[in-house]
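anyone else get weird line breaks when pasting these?? whatever heres mine. first is seq + tokens for prot A
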Amino acid sequence: MPYQSPISPGRSWYEDTAGPRPEYPALDGDRRCDVVIVGGGFTGLSAAAHLAKAGSNVVLIEAHRFGDGASGRNGGQLGTGQRAWAEELEAEYGFSRAKALFDLAEEAKAHLLEFAAANKIEIDYMPGQMSVAHKQRYVGDYKAHAEIMANRFGYPHITFMDAKETAERLGSARYFGGTRDTGTGHIHPLKLVIGTAKVAVQAGAQLFEQTPATGIASVSGKVRVTTPKGTISAEKCLIGVNAHGGTLEPISAAHIMPIGSFIGATAPLGADTNVLPGGEAVDDSRFVVRYFRKSTDGRLLFGGREIYAVNDPKDIHVHIRRQIAELYPALKDVEITHGWGGYVGITMPRKPFVREVIPNVISVGGYSGHGVMLSNFFGKLYAETVAGNRDRLRLIEDLKIPAFPGGRRFRAPLLFLALNWYALRDRI
């Protein structure tokens, strides 16, 4: 039987096309190290690779298998900048801080591609991304955004598209305009997970799967992470579990909420299709965002159904096909070969959460759907922090991230109501 993740529904197209997926042993016995990392997604694996290359003794534990969470199952889009547009950050933090945050994200993009190339990780990079308006009244914002990015933030790769160009580039007339970004692209995320784990091991990191953390404590300047079959003692700890923290650490849990996002993969559309002829990825202006792209073998990978509670849907294929048909009526009967989901971590303002939650324990997550490039880079920034330079990570630490209202008991129902209200607004 093919492997089925116990924390994410469905089997992904990524799993069937990633090539060999090595298995790593479970921890059995105690360990001492410089840094212990909890979580084997992009953040943790990247941190392990960079720390080990810098000479640190690193132990990383993952409760399931690497890539079982959002890191191995996401839409694969890199994006540009932070989750919020640069001009929105400027309005909140001022130009110099907004520019620093944008430049950090641009460095994250370059780092991901350079890391993959330097370590010979084939991530199936395809260039181009379009952001499109599903309501006419949003079109002016997209046009202004392209001008602001070029003239104020020094990023000339975004151009405005009117309705006609948008329809031609999408192969769908359901959107009113948008932007095209030639300075970014999309990847096969599970191949990057697998490759980063190999780099970490080759650098000397000790990696363990099927090893959940059962507790984290800071005692007399040391960090202790307990597991079912051993305790890890370290100088420092990184928590990189994002949406899968549960009750492990209460501060992160109060600030990062899991939401389910689901993707379907069609059969190959063929060379004569008019769907995304330029091969770009797409995201739209809905609060419950739809995101889609073509794979290297010509399938449409379409994500769009979000669930604001951790209940696995049984009908991913049906809902994804319905959304595809709204944009591409000719595909109303298309075969959906794969349907899968994963849980991403969001914060109230949709900005990343980085905080020292216990002495010598830093938690990183809440990428809010913008984590492919940011999470990998934040692993590098954490390694810089361990080496004594916390300045760049502090750019993110200092962001204003309030806790979700309602406490542990009521925050999920309140968020469910609020975000379903936003989903209703998307349709009006």
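and prot B, same format (seq, then tokens)
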Amino acid sequence: MVVAAFVAPYLLEATARFVRVAAELPGVRIGLVTCEPVDRIPPDLRERLDAHWQVDDALDPRQLAWAVSGLSGQMGRVERLVGALEQLQVPLAQVRESLGIEGMDVGTAINVRDKSQMKETLRAAGVPCARHALVRSAGQAMAFADEVGFPLVAKPPAGAGAQSTFRLDDGDMLRGWLAAVPLGDGDPALLEEFLTGDEHTFDSVTVGGTTVWSSIADYRPPPLEVLRNPWIQWTVLLPRDIGGPRYEGIHRWGPAALEALGVTDALTHMEWFARPDGSVAVSEVAARPPGAALTSMHGYAHDFDLYRAWAELVILGRFDVPERRFASGTAYLRGMGHGRVRAVHGVDAVQQQIGHLVVEARLPQPGQPAGADYVGEGYVIVRDPDTAVVEDALHRLVDGIRVELAEA
């Protein structure tokens, strides 16, 4: 019997799904650490838990250590301490080290959380990535812009999922960003060279320091363009075939980047660019399952449950490598403007064309508020053994469905 503590500050839908599959693993006792009282946990999940501990701040290592000690008194000594959110990885590692719990160490967690240190580590190891600078003043920012040129990318050193990330095209945009962002010795920001090319992901499982499974996805268009244009309906494609010369570079540099960062046993999410000259540049790495429906998409492409596979990896230390049997893709449906969804047009026509390919969907509903992030108001996931069929379905979805937003 393995005793594990799962930290999930709030049980949003995706997080609750990870907790659920962990709690269903045979031979595992699960204690849940949340910022919510036990009566806020959905009843079907609550009955699967062996214990619960509430904290005020799930990112505070001292509170997490207190919670783990409390759970140990209820279930027996906690042997695994896990969480699916990127922001948790450093505090979880700190508590593991202080309590002697197996898992990712603090040095590795910082390498994959602090974007500036990550870039320095990768460049020192010879892994191709964007030039960068951790800036603490307007002068440092201007000096980096003079050295590298525009466009630049500005982001927080510990950002996640393109949050607070901006493209700066010229000096005026840089000065505007500087006026809005408080810089200082204790509050730096990261500036990076803007990489051109096609943007992709490299999601992989590392066991004992060896990459045993990987999956590649294509962003269309790149996330920064999606952030800059809230009306764009964008897609993510997982081609069935990820071999051949197109992806040869990342199959070399992806595992090399993980080795340089110290990753030994983890599911990681990497973003990278295929440059126009065919070379590869690693953008950044996160030691967590991928977001934006990618975890589900990988499951559909390989006909397995990646949520459960992640739980087995981090709690039981095992991963059964699946076969890639399908191509899959997601179309994200987004409206132009603000307010709430007034209407959704074109669904019936698109349903007649590609409905047989749909494996999961959440269509925007009239009256729902506009999405607060780049995912938008809804999505549709499709799959087929033929990549071209999936690509065509994604085009039909984003071209044929229109989300109308309006102020109340």
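btw re prot B: The chain has a mean pLDDT of 93. The CA atoms of residues 162 and 408 lie 29 Å apart.
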